[in-house]
Amino acid sequence: MHIRGKVMKYGDNIDTDVIIPARYLTSSDPLELAKHCMEDLDPTFTQRVTQETVLVAGKNFGCGSSREHAPLAIKGAGVQAVIATSFARIFYRNAINVGLPILECEEASQALEEGEEVEIDLNQGVIRSLTTGRLFQAQAFPPFLQEVIREGGLMNLVKKRVS
Amino acid sequence: MGMTITEKIIAHHAQKERVVPGELVQVRVDLALANDITAPLAIKELKKHGIHRVFDPHKIALIADHNTPCKDIPSAENVKLMREFAREHGIPYFFEGGQVGIEHVLVPELGLVVPGDLVIGADSHTCTYGALGAFATGMGSTDIAASWVLGETWLKVPESIRFVYEGERQPFVTGKDFILYTIGQIGVEGARYCAMEFTGGAITALSMDERFTMANMAIEAGAKNGIMEPDEKTLQYVKSTGTTRQPLLYASDRDASYREVMTIDVSKIEPQVALPHLPENVRPVDSLSRIEIDQVVIGSCTNGRMEDLRMAAQVLRGRKVYPRVRVLIFPGTPKTLLEAEREGLVRIFLEAGSVIAPPSCGPCLGGHLGVLAEGERCVSTTNRNFVGRMGHVKSEVYLANPYVAASSAVLGYIASPRKL
Ligand code: SF4
Q1: How confident is the model at residue A143, as a pLDDT?
Q2: Measured between alpha carbons, how far is B96 from B87 in angstroms, rounded to an integer?
Q3: Most CB within 10 Å of its CB: which of A143, B73, B100, B178?
């Protein structure tokens, strides 16, 4: 699967409270949540994000609470994938479970700049900058998680097991 | 090669002789909980996929503590969804109204977790139960929903970091200061994906309440779990809950392997304050310049237990809250509130000029019952001081122990009781 998009870049320790503040958590509808995605960090986010956005961030992306509303809000906003140096572990699981593509790659997270065009080969974990031509290799997912991703999320796998 | 307590509990639940860090395993789950923010999403996921069964209703807990007493119509709808789900599946551990407390205070208090258990919860502070010598970790709603159906989940065995706390602590220094100090040392991702194992004479000396406070904040260093070996105090606590479940006592082997071992001399630790906007921005309280405040919050799953209320009352007894400061006290559970009433603490708080709020998460996550306006500052015994955590994006939260919170309430600026 290939993804193309334009980079929006953020820093380290982007926590789930700024990804989607608690005051909006009475909803779990991705499109509703998307209206407030990142608003406490970057009030221009929702105006600038498009259906072809790739988020690039630093260390410990998604730290803080266990709210699955965070990857849902990002996905609902149209973000195609998140590239970070590292992810907080609950966010990592949640993103896979809700089908938001994530890639752990320190080099790419440092090198990619705001506005760069990137193409991502999700199966291979290869990130290519169409602006600079540089190639980056992200960490591979363990086989079990690849299966979750292939099935389109954890619940599909659970359904298979119980039916 | 020996195993750590974390590895032993995971191995037991994976029905394996041994596990090693990095290994992915399927584990049996003793309890899987969710709250009124995360449970509705889990329930909707199950419905969406046409799944109408749960593995074992006695291994599920549904706790309506975040936006309750329901602050608006969507919150009330969310709790209704939980209530109906509990009824449909015969889940006995659904709590609301006068039964509900903050989940991570309530669950241990009711004896729903015992040493040796493996617990997952759709709340990041599920790691609190590590204080009992259980493996407990937070996950998202979909993971919890899956475990409700299958009775198991997948885990990556974490590497462990061993923290050895030695020495005698100074007055007004608590478990909260140990953990804030530690996070200040290693940073908010210093233990990312790892188990934090808290040991040493200074941990043995801590009360159970203070141990819960420490394990609670392991996630604030990015850890998967925080854990302490169970001892006499643990067993006494478990017994006091009246549970009939048998605890399984694990301890780390002497030759267990750790990513790192850190020794901390607690006699050098002063009462700590974490400045906005990360729990790692820690300073000794006495090193701060005069920071005036508008609100004080005492409570939460971090510091909402009896010991915490006693610390606050010790400071507030016979004193008055500074005129322009609002003090909100959130007891962790109805039982905590009742005990506080019996001990006369409620009277002390009221006479000092505080508000006693219902057992609830309230302002901790900026939900309701004490949200901050632009530019306001709050000293809070909670666990997070992220941007906008307690209200306006330009408000500020300073994390501290209950002594410091209470003395700041009296003085109107952040200070330890030594300044009184
Ligand atoms: S008290 Fe705060 S940290 Fe604890 S469960 Fe409630 S919202 Fe979360």
Answers
A1: 85
A2: 13
A3: B178
